[in-house]
## 1
Amino acid sequence: MYAGLKYIPLIIAGIGAIGWGLPAAHRLRRPLDIGASLAVLVGVVLTAMGILLTILPHFFR
C-alpha cells in the first residue's frame, strides 16, 4: 500500500519546476526564457510520472 509513496519527491520537484519556470519564462530575456520553458516542460513530465507511479507503482514493469 505504501510502495508508491517514494515517488512523492517527483511530484514536489515537478511542481517546483513549474512554479519557477512559468514566471521566469515571461520575466527573462530571449535566450534564457527557453531554459525556463524547458524547466516547465520537465516539471509537467515529472509531475505526471510522479502521480502515475504513486497511484500505480509497478506501471513500467
## 2
Amino acid sequence: MPIKNTIIVLPQFHKQRLDIFLSVQLKTSRSQAQKIIKAGQVLINNKSPKKAGDQLNQNDEIQILAFAPSVSVVKKPFCRPKEIKPTTPNKIPKIKIIAQEKDYLIVAKPAGLLTHPTIADESQTLSKILAKKFPKIKKVGEDPARPGIVHRLDKDASGLMVVAVTPKMFKHLKTQFKNRTVLKEYLVLVHGQVKSDEGKIDFPLTRSKTSERMAAWPSHQKQADDFVGRPALTEFWVEKRYLNFTLLRVKIHTGRMHQIRAHMLAYNHPVVGDQLYFQKKQKRTWDEKCGRLFLHCVKLGLVDLSGQTREYSLELPLALKNFLKKLT
C-alpha cells in the first residue's frame, strides 16, 4: 500500500488552485506539481481531483502518495548554484561550522541546499546532514524532520544560521525569534540603481493566490478588499553602486517567507539571480552569469543561555566576490 503524506489546507490557502498549493508546499515548479497530479499521486479528501486547477477549501485534506521514480519534483533552475552540483546527488555537501558551542552551532549554509526536508522528504538537507554529524541534535525540537532548526534560509540563499543542540537552547532561541530580537543582516545585490542611501520597506506580505510567490502590497497604494497581509519590515543601506546594480546591506525586523525577495521586487529592485521574484521586462543575462541568488546572510546576533550577546560574521562566498568584480 502506498505511503501517504497529508497536508491540511489552512485558512490562508482557501480557494487557492491545487497546483499552486502543491508547488509552494513541495518547493517545486507549477509544471512539476501538475505532473504529480496528472500521475494520480494526489488526492483531495481521499478523492482524485478533476483537474490541476481545482480550488481548495479550508480544512481539505491533501494526500500525496509516495513519489514514483518516473516523476521528478526537482525544480530546474535557469542557473544552478555553484556550491552544490546536481550531477552528484549522493555526494554530501560540506557544511562549514563557524562556531561549535555547548548548546548551539553556527553554520554556513551553502546555496542550493534546503534547510530541512519538505513533504517530498529530500535526502540532502542541512538538518539531515547536521543530525548525522551531531547525533545529539536528533532529539532537539518540535519536529523530527527538522531537529534543532529554529529558523530557515531559502534554498537558493546562503550564509549564517544557528542550530540548537539542546532542548533548553532550542526553546531559548525560539523565544528570541518570536520576539524578533535576533540580529540578521544580509548582503544583497539588486537590479538597478537604488537612489536612497538607506531606507525602510514596510509592505504587508501574503501568499499569492495565483502563483508560487509571496505578494507584497506597497503602502502608498490602496489595498484590494480581499488582500489580507501580514506586517513585514525590511531595512537597507547602500554598500556600493554599480552601473546597473546596487549592493545593499539588508536587515529584516520580521521573518516572513521570502521577505527580502518579495520586498525588493515590490520596491522595483529585484534580487539578482532570483528565479521566482523578477520582472518580465528585465534582462536575465546577468542573472545567468551570477549563477545563483545573490542573497547571503553575513551577520547573526543572539543571546546565549548565560545572557551574553554573541555576534557572528561571514564573508561573501568567493563566487559572489568574483561576480562583483565583473561589474566594476
## 3
Amino acid sequence: MPTDQFFRELTLRICSTLDIQKAIERVFPVLRARVPLDELRLEVLDRKLGAVRQIARVSTAAHGRAGERITQVKPAIVPLPARLWRWADAMRGPILMDEASGEDMRMMRVLTKAEHDSDLAVPLRVESTQLGFLLLRAAGKGRYTAAHAELLATVADPCAVALANALAHQELVQVRDELLDDKRFLNRELFHATADEVIGGSTGLRSVMELVRQAAPLNSTVLLLGETGVGKDVIANVLHDASPRREGPFIKVNCGAIPEGLVDSEMFGHEAGAFTGARAAHRGRFERADGGTIFLDEIGDLPKGAQVRLLRVLQSREIERVGGTRPLKVDIRVIAATHQNLQQMVTEGRFREDLFFRLNVLPINIPPLRLRAEDIPALVRHFVAVKRRGLGIRVTPAISPGALARLQAYPWPGNVRELENVVERELVRSAGRGRELTFEELGRPPARSAPSRHEPAPPRTLADAMAAHIEDVLAATGGKIHGPGGAAELLGVNESTLRNRMNRLGITYGRRAAQKRGEAG
C-alpha cells in the first residue's frame, strides 16, 4: 500500500467513530500491514490522576499469528513517578524504546513490561498540549527501525485529533453521568453496592468476587473473614443484592456494639411486659430480616449466651422472643463477618465450636489493601469523587505525579477505611487553594511496610507492625482515641474495636499511659 493511501485509510478509520476502542481495532490491521505489530495501545497522560491511563488496547491472541484474531485487552492505569511524568510529557517525536538509552528509558521499559519486546512510542499532541501517545509493540528485540518511526510520524496528527475528540466526548458523557448520579444521590440516603460496582472486583478482589458469584444464588450461610476496614460490609451488600432475596430486607447487626444485657431483645425481640420498661412488643433483628438477609458483623464479639441462641436459630430457623411462649419461623439468609481468628477463639474456649461449624459453610477471605495495591488508583478516584461532592468542592482536584506510587507503597493497616479518611483529609487541606493532591502527609513508606506477594516477609510479626503503627498514630494525636482527630478516626476503625486491639497488643492508654509516661520521666 503506497504511503498516501496508507495515510488516507488510517485517517478514515481512526476518525470514523467516537468510540476510541473501536477506532483502534479498525486501525490495527492497517498498521500491521506496514509495520511489525502484535499489540497496539492508546495511552493518555491523565493530569488529574497523575498517571498514564490506557484507554484502548488490542492485540493478536497471545501475540500469536494463527488466524490473526484480534483480542481486546482490558485497559489499565500505570502510575508514573514525577521524573518519568516529565519525560513522557516532553516527548516530541516517535521513539524506538528498545534502542533508546538512559535511566528514564530503562525505568519506562520496566513499567510498561517491555524488557523483552520492541516498543515504538508515537507522541500525540494537539497544538502545545501533550495528550498521550500511541504505543506499538512487537515480540522480540530490534523489530522497529527509523523508517517505521518516520512512517508513524506522518499519522500522529490525525490520531491526536481523534484522541482529542474522543476525550471530549468521554468528558461530556462523564458530566452527564455525574449529574444523573447527583440526582440519584439527593433522592436516597443509603447506597448499596452491587457486584458490578465493587472497586477491585476485576483486579485485587477478582477471586473474592468469583466466590460471591457462586454463593449469591444460594441460601447457605456465608462467613466473611478479613481485617478491619477491608470492606466486609460491601461484600455482604453485594451478596444480598445479587441473590434471589434482593427484594427482601437487608438487616445489619454489629454484634460488638450491642450491650450484653440487650443482645437478646435486640436480636430476637421481646413481648410486652417481658421486663421492666417493655411496654410494647418489639420485633428483633431476625424478625425484621424475614424474607431477606441478616448480616451479623463482628460475630466474634457475640456473648457466649447469645451464641447458644444463635446456634438454635441456624439449626431450626426459629426464634423466640424474650418473654414469648411460642417459636416464630423466620425465612432468612445469614451472612456473618469477623476480623478475628474464630478457630483460635474456639481453641481458647471463647467461641462455640458447634456455632463455628454452622457459620463456616462458605468462608470468603477478603485480602487486606496492602496485598492488592493495584486497586488503590481506582479507589482513590472513587473516594475523591464521592468526598468532593460531600464536601461541596466544585472542581475535582488533580493528583500530583508520584502521589499514587506513594499511596501504593504505604502498608494501610486500617485498609480501605483508612484510605478513605486519608483522601478526605487531603481534599480538606487542598480545598480553596487550588493545589494538587500530593498525600505527602503519609511521609516515606514505613520500614515495616508489608511485603508484596513476590517479596520475602520481613523479620517482623504483623502484631508488632500493627502495634508500632497504632503507637505512631497515638503519638500524633497526643494519646486521643475517640472524637474528631482521634486515633480511631485516623485509622478508620470503631473506637471499641481500637481499644480491644490495643488491649490485645499490650498498648497502654488513658490513665495507664499517663502513669507509664510519668514513670519514664
## 4
Amino acid sequence: MTKPIINNILRLVFVLFISSLISTCAPETVRRRGFEAKPCLDCHKAKLNELQKKYVHSPMGKRECEACHLRHGKIAVLSLKEREERKFCYICHTQMALNMDKTANVHTALRQGKCVPCHNPHASENKSLLKKTGSEQCFTCHKQATFMRAKRHKPLADGCLICHAPHGSQYKDNLIKEEVELCQSCHSYTADKFRKAHKDYPVQRGKCTGCHTPHSSTNDKLLRESVHAPLNMGQCASCHKPVTDPNPLDVIAPDGKLCYTCHKKEESGFKEAYRHRPLDEGKCQSCHSPHATDYPKITLMSRNELCISCHKKKEGVLKVSSLHAPIKDKGCTACHNPHASQYQFYLKASEKKICFTCHGKTEKELNERYAHVPFSKVECQKCHDSHGSNNPGMMKTALTNLCYTCHKKEEKEFFKTYIHTPVNNRQCASCHKPHASTYKGLLNNSPDQLCVSCHGNMFLELKEENIHKPFKTKECMICHNPHASEHIASTIKPMPELCYDCHKRLETDLQASANKHLPAEEGKCTVCHSPHGTKIRHLLLNRPKELCLSCHERIVTTTVKRGHIEMEKGDCLSCHISHYSESRYLLSAKDPALCVKCHSVDTERLLKVHIKPVAKISHCLSCHEPHVTEKPGLLKKLKHSPFGKGNCKVCHE
C-alpha cells in the first residue's frame, strides 16, 4: 500500500472520530430531535409551591427531578430509582448509611427502611426537611399523653433531641449517651440534695429509669405510675443492705423469701395445687419490678404483653377478630390467678364455673328442658376458644363446620339430593339453639312456629281453605325431613309410601283392585292433590273437570256439539271413582247399571227409541258415547247403517 493511500485512510479515521465525539457532546435535545424532553414541572405545577418553602431539598432546588425519579418509571406511581426508601436516600446520604450500619439501635421507622414518615422529600418550612416542628414530629407516632402528665421532666420543653438521637444510637431507646451518664449531665450524684433524696445509696450503679420516668408522671420526683410501697416511703433498707455495707445495693434475702416477708398472701400460694412457675421458683422479678413501673401491680409490662412474653403460642390471640372481652378489657388475670390456684390453668374458679362468673344469663339456660350435651356438662371449650378466635362468638372453627365435628351423621346429609336451605348453607343456628331450649331438638321455637318463621307466606295463602291436617296443625315433620332427603321436597319417604302412612285403607284397596287410576298406580299422589291445601275439596289441584281434562284432553274435541250432562257440569266423579274400581274405566258401577241410576228404564222417551225393552239391554256403551259427541242422543260417530237409519228390525226381531 502506498504512503498517500495510508495518509488518506488516517485522515478519514480522524474525521470520523471527531464527528462522533462532537455528536456525543451535543445536548440531548439536539441528539434526539423529535423527542425533546419536557420539564417535569410543566405538568407537576403543584410542586412549584415547594420551591417557596424555607428549606428545599437540593435536587428539588436545582430542578433535577431525575436525581430521584425515573422519567418513564420503574416503580408504580412514584417512579423512584430505588424501591426501598432508605437505600434510595443513601445514594446521596452515604455518611448516614455508614453510621447506621454500625449503630446498635436504629429508629424504628428507619429500621423499616422509611425516611418519608419524618422528612418531606421535596421541601419543608422546618429544618432537616422535617414534616413537623420539634417534638410534634415525634408525636405523630409516639403517644403524646405519656409526655403530658402533671409533673414533667424539664428537658421536655427543649424537645426530644435533648436526650434522643433521631436516627439511632449505640444506646437503648436511641439515647445520645448511656442512661446514667446522660442523667448525670444534669443531676450530679455527688450533690448533697441527690444523696439525701436517695438515702445515701449509690443508685448511680443502677438505672435511673428503674424508679423514675424520663418524660412525665402524676407522682412527685417523676416516680413512675406504680411504685413499690417501701420505695414510696423511702424505706430502702427494708429490702437492701445498710448503706455502710460494702455492697449496699444487695438485697437482704433471696428474691422470693424477701418478697414473702411482706406478701404473706402470695406465699400461701405454695399450698395450692397449681402454682405459676415464677412463683414456684421464687422469681418474683420475672413479672414485677422491685421499684417502680408504669403498669399496675408494678409489673414489667402491660398485662397481656407480660403474659405473652413467656406464653408465645398465645401471641396470635391478641390479633384475632373475636377476642374474649375480659382479655380486651382486663387482661389475662380476669380469668387466671397470676400466682397460684386450686384449679388447672390457674383459673380463678373451676372450669364449670369460671364462664358463668360473667355469663350468668347463659347459666340460667341450664334450667331449660333440653340442653346441648357439651352445655349440660358445662364444657364450654368444646365449641368456644376461651381466649378468642377469628370466628364469631369465639367459635373454635367456623360455625359452618363446628357442629359437624360431633354431628357426623348430619354432615352426611350434604350428599343427599334435596337439602334444606339452612343445612345447605351450614346455618344450624337458623333452627337450633346452641345451648338449651324448651323444645326438643334444641329448636329456636316450637316446631309449628319454627317453620312459619321462614315459610309464613305459605300458611297465609291457605288460611281458610281446605288444608291437609298435618299442614293445618303445622306438624311439618310428619312429612318432611328438616335436614335433607333423597326424595323431592325433602319428604321422609317417597310417595306413595309417605301418604300410605296415614291413608292405609287406600293402600290396601289399591293393591286388591284390578283397575287403578294411573297416577295412583304409579304412586304420584301430587299429580291430583296438593300436599298442603287448596281452595277445592279433597285437596285437589283444580276443579274436577279441569283437573281430569289436564290428562284426558282427548275426550274433548273442537267439533263437540253435545255432551253428557255430567260432563257438562264437570262432575266426572258421578260416574268414575278417582283411585280404583272393580269396573273398567274406573266406573263406579258396571254398564248398564251405572246408566240406569240416572236414566229410568220406563220413561216414555226411552221406550219409544228402544225397540227392545231397556231392562234387557246389556251394554249402553255399545251405542252411546259417554262423554261428548257430534250426534244426537250421544250416539257414537261410526254406526251400523241400519242402526243409523233407525231400522233395528233388519237385524232384531
